[in-house]
Amino acid sequence: MIKKEEAESILKKYGQEHLLNHFETLNESKKKELLSQIENIDFELINSLYKNADKEEANKQDEISHMEYSDKYKLNEKYKEYEDIGKKSIKAGQLAVVTMAGGQGTRLGFDGPKGAYDIGLDSHKSLFELLCDNLKEGQKKYGVLVPWFIMTSEENNDQTIEFFEKHKFFGYQKDKNIFFFKQGQLPMVDTEGKILINEDGLIKLAANGHGGIYEALVKNGMVKKMREMGIEWIYIGGVDNCLAKMVDPLFVGMAIDKKVTVACKSVVKANPHEKVGVFCKRNGRPSVIEYSEISNEMAEATDENGELLYGESNLLCNLFDINAVERMGSLPLPYHIAYKKATYIDKDGELIVPDSPNAYKFESFLFDTFGTLDEMLVLRVKREEEFAPVKNADSAGVDCPSTARKMYEDFQKSKK
């Protein structure tokens, strides 16, 4: 680890000397942690991101076009063929599941990891347990324990592991089948480009977005572990979709048959102006375009069958060949800038609690790697069967606990 004098030299080079302003007030443990943070921060990257914070992303010249998809319910005689291929792969132990669970339940008014949230079912099962039920269903059907890799964050890692321990890992043989690893982080900076100091005197860090999943899987040794297990396919999804179908032989079988390295699920947009990202081709390659990038004309455009040209919503339900994950873990992803409210310690040691956005957070997106692919599979599924996200408080009336709960209960009834 670097010494204080070395840290001072690094910080002076990048105009961040204030990070040591309160060094002498920290205990020995915190002093070591702060020096370690300074040693590991890529200050060149942070400077570059800050300089580009006010620039619009140069996507105005991109050529956006429609992307083909397959409809799960229009596969006809091929359905069973694909499913049989997928079953063979799953039974051979070639599938792993990754859940991105680094977020807190703040927007839901819940103090804890989002995955620990109870959506109000009679069973009081958390989002984590509902996802585990899906894995157990796969175990029952295909006679295999699919390994479960859970990406936490620095903020919620300990709480998440404690939650799993408290609930005895939902009966899913933790030693062989559940693995935790942490998401990467980047410092938050103010509007002058100064890195913020957190309430504990350390550098204020924020999760680097779901695009950090690739690097986190590689750096934390999870891909290596998967290879040792004989894994070939990795399902990656968020923690907040209580209807996620993670062990899906049809999905796996289609990816294998089509010889693609990435497959994604979609649902039809609820309406032309639903605020979701949709699949498209960008300059001839697979991509996801945000709703803010689509003109009204594009949003409402239809094909000869009257279906929306840009109507396939991105669910964040993805399947990757393990080689693709490893390759994407070494790719430098573009960062997107979010302007957020962030509490911090000022130069006088006072805690500042802003009432409006005051800092930049830098995030990468999982789908930003799709542009490196020649082709990928998009499989349209039914919203009522596979997509019940919990993103907002009930007051929003959409993608909230009450809507997810109803969809989950309705789906369970339909299975009987």
Give the topology.
Layout (H helix, E strand, L loop, with lengths): L3 H11 L13 H13 L2 H9 L12 E2 L4 E2 L6 H14 L3 E6 L26 H16 L5 E5 L4 H10 L7 H4 E5 L2 E3 L1 E2 L14 E3 L5 H7 L2 H8 L3 E6 L10 H10 L3 E7 L9 E5 L2 E5 L6 H5 L11 E10 H7 L7 E5 L3 E2 L5 E2 L6 E5 L13 E4 L2 H4 L14 H15 L1
Helix pairs in contact: 4-10, 8-12
What would you say about this model in short?
The protein has helices at 4-14, 28-40, 43-51, 78-91, 127-142, 157-166, 174-177, 213-219, 222-229, 249-258, 296-300, 322-328, 383-386, 401-415; strands at 64-65, 70-71, 95-100, 148-152, 178-182, 185-187, 189-190, 205-207, 233-238, 262-268, 278-282, 285-289, 312-321, 336-340, 344-345, 351-352, 359-363, 377-380. By secondary structure, it is of the alpha/beta class. The protein has a single domain (63-266, 314-415), classed as Spore Coat Polysaccharide Biosynthesis Protein SpsA, Chain A (Alpha-Beta Complex), CATH 3.90.550.
| CATH-defined superfamily | Spore Coat Polysaccharide Biosynthesis Protein SpsA, Chain A
Which CATH top level class fits? Alpha Beta
Rg calculated over all Cα atoms: 22 Å
Tell me the β content: 15-25%
Question: What is the count of DSSP helices, taking H or I runs of 4+ residues?
Answer: 14
Sequence stretches where pLDDT stays below 50 over 5 or more residues:
none
Please give the number of β-strands. 18
User: How far apart lie the N and C ends?
Assistant: 59 Å
Strand order of the largest sheet: 2-18-10-13-9-3-4-5
Residues in helices, as a percent range: 25-40%
Q: Structurally, how many domains make up the residues?
A: 1
| Architecture (CATH level 2) name | Alpha-Beta Complex
CATH fold-type name = Spore Coat Polysaccharide Biosynthesis Protein SpsA, Chain A
Content-based structural category: alpha/beta
Name the average pLDDT.
93
Main sheet summary: 8 strands, mixed
* Envelope shape: globular
